[in-house]
Amino acid sequence: MSLLRRSGEVRTLPGQAGLRPQYGLVALGLLGLGWGLSQLPPVQGLLLLLGVGLGFTLFHARFGFSSAFRQLLSVGQGRALQAHMLLLAVTASLFALLFALGQGLGGQPLAGYLAPIGPGLLIGAFLFGIGMQLAGGCASGTLYATGSGSLVGFIALVSFIAGSVIGAWNWEFWAMGPGATGSLPPISLAEHLGLGGALALTLALVGGLALLAEWVIRRRQPPPLKAPEGAVGWARVLRGSWPLWVAALVLALLNAAVLYVSGRPWGVTAGLTLWGSQAVEALGLAEPAFWTYWNGQSPLALTPLGHPTTLTNLGILLGAFLSASLAGLFGKNPRLGGRVVLAAVVGGLLMGYGARLSYGCNIGAYIGGVASFSLHGWVWLGMALLGTGVGLWLRPWFGLANPKPTDAVC
User: Fold this and answer.
1) Rounded to two decimals, what is the model's pTM?
2) What 3-state class would DSSP assign to 188?
3) Which pLDDT tens digit goes with each residue over 160-208?
4) For the CA atoms of 249, 255, 258, 263, what is the dihedral angle to 10 degrees?
5) Which of 12, 126, 239, 314 has the fewest C-beta atoms lying within 10 Å of its C-beta?
C-alpha cells in the first residue's frame, strides 16, 4: 500500500488503514486537563502541563529505555542508546546551569538526585533491568502505554505499583539494615570536581558511550530502526512520529523545567509508591506509617495533587491519552495470551521492587542521577544492562520475541 505524503494525511499501516483522530476522546482529554488546571494552584498546574508535554513526547517518539537496551544487546542496534546519550548531555548541561543559578521558581532551592552505592542499588537496578524486558516497558513506558490505552501497559503499571509498595515495606532492610552492609555514601561528582569539572566528565562519558554504540553499529551492521508511522508535514507535530533526537531534546528541556518549577528533577517511582501505599492504607491491608520508608507519616495524610511526581505522572497519562487519541490509536490492543499477561505482572513487580531498592527507575536513578552528577546513576545503568541480558534470555519463556538480525526493530 502506498504511503500518503501530503501534509496532514496519515501514513497507513497494515490493519490500520484509514485511522482518523478520535475526536470524542480528544475532547474528553482536554476537558479533563481544563478541569485539573482549574482546581490547582499555578505551580501545581504548571507541573501537570509539563507532565502532559512529557507524555505527549514519549508517545510520539515511542521513546523507550527497555527497547533501547534490548536492541543494543540483541542485535547491536545502538541508535536509541545514542538518543539516551543526547538526552543525558543536554539534561546535564541544563542542570549545571540551574545548579549554578542556585534557585528555582520563587527562589526555592534546587536539589539533584543523589543516592548511596550499595547492595540495594546493585540488586534493585539488576531486577529492574530484568523486569522491563518482561513487561515490555520501563517506568515512563508503562505510564505512557497505559495512557494510550494499552492493556499490557496497564497490567504492568498496576504490578509496578504493587512491587514499589513491597519495596517500601522492605526498605529498611536495604537502606538501613543488613542489606545496606558495605554501602558507600552518595558520591557527587560536582562536590569533588566542581560543576564545570563534573559537567565536562559527564559529557566525555556520554560522548564515549555514543562513540562505542557507533562502533557496535558499524561492526554488527544491525537492522535499521523502524519508526512508527503517522502523519507527515506540519501534522506530524500532533499526529506523526518524532525522530528520537527531537524527543531527546524536548525531554531534556521538560526535565530541566520540572527541576526549576518543583526544585527536584523529573521522577516517576515516588508517585507510584505513594499511590500504592495510600491504597493499602485505605483498604486496611497495612499501616505504612510504621514503615521506615514513610518515617511515621501516614500516606493518606499527603495530598496526591500536592505531590510533584504525582502531578507529572498524571500529566504523562493524560499527554499520552491525548496524543494516542489524536493519532486514532487509543485502545488499539492485540489479543493477549496468558504468558504475555504473566510476563507483564512479573516484570511490573520486579521493576517496582527494584526501583524502590535502587532509589529510582530509568528516569529518577538513570537520567536524573547522571544529570545530577551522582555516581549512582552510572552504576544503575551498568546493572540495568546486566539485568537486561537476563531478561532477554527469559523473554522466550513467556512467548516474547527478541529482535533478530534480519528484522527491522522498533
Assistant:
1) 0.91
2) strand
3) 999 999 999 999 999 888 888 888 999 999 999 999 999 999 999 999 9
4) -130
5) 12
